[in-house]
Amino acid sequence: MLKRLEAERAVAPSERESLPPHERVPRQEAVDWEQRVQTRVGEECGQDTQARLAVIHEIRRTELRADESDSYTPTITAYHRIVDLLVELDAG
Q1: For 17-47, what is each residue's pLDDT tens digit?
Q2: What is this structure's pTM?
Q3: 8 Å CB contact between 56 and 78
Q4: DSSP state of 71
Q5: Distance from the Cα of residue 31 to its chain's centroid
Q6: How far is Cα 59 from Cα 7, in angstroms, rounded to an integer?
Q7: Can you tell me the distance from the alpha carbon of 63 to that of 74, in angstroms, rounded to the nearest whole number?
Q8: HSE-up of 6 (CA within 13 Å, CB side)?
């Protein structure tokens, strides 16, 4: 998903719609992924980890408000942070 988002970001906004569906990340796919992560963190981890995940989302919201013309960079950055958190949790 991250690779597809990064590829989408690299394409001019006027050309994104012409990308084949398998090269794009539908909004619902991203929302579903975020919800699965949130659910698993809630089930498996403590409040500290939930708070860390909430901070990642808050940073993204702040970055989105700061530059409404680019929703890709804050989202990609947030997703990298989430993956890093999940890797850290997995390493235990």
Answers
A1: 899 999 999 999 999 999 999 999 999 999 9
A2: 0.89
A3: yes
A4: S
A5: 9
A6: 22
A7: 6
A8: 8
